[in-house]
Design goal:
The protein is built from seven helices and two strands. By secondary structure, the chain is mainly α. A two-stranded antiparallel sheet has the order 1-2.
Amino acid sequence: MTRLSVSSSVQLLASAQTSTGAIPASTVHDVYQYGWLRDGSWCAYALDRAGRRDAASAWHHWVAQTVLAHEHRVDQAIAAVREGRVTGLVMMPARFTLDGQEEIAGEEEWPNYQTDCYGFWLWAVADHIRRGGVLDDQLEAAMRLTIRYLLAAGDQPCYDCWEEHPATATPPRWPRSRPACVTRERCSTMPPPR
C-alpha cells in the first residue's frame, strides 16, 4: 500500500481540480465524477491549510457560481417546505456535475438531498475568508442565498452523508447544523443586501 505524505496528498487534490475550480470526489472512478459540496469543501479546507489559497478560492467560487446558477431551485425548495411537499427531487442537490449542472437521473435512484452539506460549505468558505481569502460579491451573494435556503430547509429530514439509508432519513443534528449557525453569526457582519 502506498503511503501518502501531506505534500503528495495536497498535490493529488490540486491536480484533480478542474480549470473551473471543481474538485471531483474521485479521479479514478467514473461514478464519482461529481463535485460534492461537503467533500470538496473538506478538500478546499485542506488546500487552504496547506497554503494553496488560490486553489481553495477556486473551489469556493465554483460552488458560488453553481449555487447562484440554481437560485430558482432554492426558490422551489423553499416553496416546497412552506407547502409541506418536501422530497429529494425538489430540494437542492448535494452534488453537481463538474461543470456545475444537476446530474441527469439514471436508471437507479441515487439520493442527492442533504442540507448539511450547504451548512458545511458556509463554514468552509467563512474559514477561507478568515484565513485571508477575499469575500467578493459572488461569494457574498452565494452565501446569502445558501443561508436563505438553510433558514427555510435546514431542519428538514434528509439522507445520511453516505446516501445509503433512504428509509432512515433523519433531521440534521447539532454537529451537522453547527457550521451554518457559526457562519450565520460571522455573516451577520456583512453589509445588508443591495
